[in-house]
């Protein structure tokens, strides 16, 4: 599945480059290298490469790859969740804070905070449980690349620290975003 809405030739070229890299042997390393290059190119533009009212825009999804353009709203944090596959995040504008949660008996423990400031590529291994937030004052810009079919993976999400996991539901995930606490 490819995005059903119009996108710029700049963004379409990036999607094509990622799809091509993911189709080759050694795909993790190839996709990571391509995403680093794309992230640097997009960062040099000094603006978002795609404007949408939604924070998440699905660009491509197939059996082996899922790509989103993410523009996080400033001051919001999304609930903890997992992907169950490698995730590569190319932050090209602004910043993202990832709260990485260790688990104990299926419950979230105190998270480790990891700041990513553009231009940067972050790798989240398949077993990562994280929440993402935008601590900045403007919408961030990033390509989130998942090395698998994220839409058909039975994932989990948590409300917030200490909670037991529930089934991931994207509508609930978006609705449960909250203001970043003090």
Explain this structure to me?
The protein is of the alpha+beta class and about 180 residues long. It is built from 3 helices and 15 strands. The chain has helices at about 10-20, 25-45, 170-175, and strands at about 55-60, 65-70, 75, 80, 85-95, 95-100, 105, 105-110, 110-115, 120-125, 130-135, 140-145, 155, 165, 180. Strand 13 and strand 14 form a beta hairpin.
Write the layout of secondary structure elements.
Layout: H1 9-22, H2 27-45, E1 56-61, E2 66-70, E3 76-77, E4 81-82, E5 87-93, E6 95-100, E7 103-104, E8 107-108, E9 112-117, E10 120-124, E11 129-133, E12 141-146, E13 156-157, E14 166-167, H3 170-175, E15 178-179
Antiparallel strand pairs: 1-2, 2-12, 3-15, 4-11, 5-10, 5-12, 6-9, 6-11, 7-8, 13-14
Helix pairs in contact: 1-2
The pLDDT mean sits at: 92
Order of helices and strands: HHEEEEEEEEEEEEEEHE
As residue ranges, the low-confidence spans are none
**What does the largest sheet look like?**
5 strands, antiparallel
Q: Strand order within the widest sheet?
A: 1-2-12-5-10
List the main descriptive attributes of the protein structure presented here.
single chain; four-stranded antiparallel beta sheet; 3 helices
Summarize the structure.
This protein is of the alpha+beta class.
């Amino acid at each position: 599945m490819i995005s059903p809405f119009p996108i710029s030739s700049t963004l379409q070229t990036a999607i094509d480059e990622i799809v091509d890299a993911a189709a080759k042997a050694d795909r993790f390393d190839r996709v990571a290298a391509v995403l680093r290059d794309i992230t640097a190119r997009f960062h040099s533009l000094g603006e978002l490469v795609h404007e949408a009212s939604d924070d998440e825009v699905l660009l491509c999804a197939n059996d082996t790859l899922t790509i989103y353009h993410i523009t996080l709203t400033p001051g919001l944090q999304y609930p903890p969740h997992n992907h169950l596959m490698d995730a590569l995040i190319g932050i090209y504008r602004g910043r993202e804070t990832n709260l990485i949660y260790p688990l104990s008996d299926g419950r979230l423990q105190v998270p480790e905070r990891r700041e990513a400031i553009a231009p940067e590529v972050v790798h989240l291994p398949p077993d990562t449980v994280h929440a993402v937030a935008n601590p900045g004052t403007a919408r961030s810009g990033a390509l989130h690349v998942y090395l698998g079919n994220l839409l058909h993976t039975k994932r989990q999400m948590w409300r917030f620290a200490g909670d037991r996991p529930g089934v991931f539901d994207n509508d609930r995930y978006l609705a449960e975003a909250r203001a970043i606490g003090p």
